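Q: My labmate handed me this sequence with no annotations at all. I'd like to see what the chain might look like in three dimensions before we decide whether it's worth expressing. Could you predict it?
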Amino acid sequence: MSRIGKQPVTLPAGVTATLGKDNVLTVKGPKGELKQAIDRDITVEVKDGEVTFARPTDQIRHRAMHGLYRSLVANLVKGVTEGFTRKLELVGVGYKASNQGNLLDLSLGYSHNILFEIPSELKVATAQEKGQNPLITLEGIDKQLIGQVAAKLRSLRKPEPYKGKGVKYVGEVIRRKAGKAAGK
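A: Here is what I predict for the chain of 184 residues:
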């Protein structure tokens, strides 16, 4: 039995989960509503403030999906109650970030500024304090969407291993390399 899949997802107060047709689970909470399509082989049961998952056989495919859908639904429940945040840091001389609504204006050392449209489901905030690197904060209820947008922003200028310049997640450790001078 899947260690993750066999644990039920408890629904906190103010959160409701309903299983619709075509095995689509809808989770509503104080911050919004999220939907997740669940494979038809996985049995989902919503009762007594808990969502439980069961698989028909011990095939590799069923075992993989058992834990997967339990984790995805747990992320939906956490998203509609607390929400998710992701912070990115711009490391480099002259790197700047500013936003007007959901339009992010990035200066990352290229010959031009990069205009990046953030999806309307997310909130974006930029902060620039003296002596600190510029910060971009993404907030929303959909963990997958936040991760995807944060990865796309990071890919605009990945951190390089020699000076550590680039767009990195807050708390991310960049493995540094010695330069040419270290070889002598």
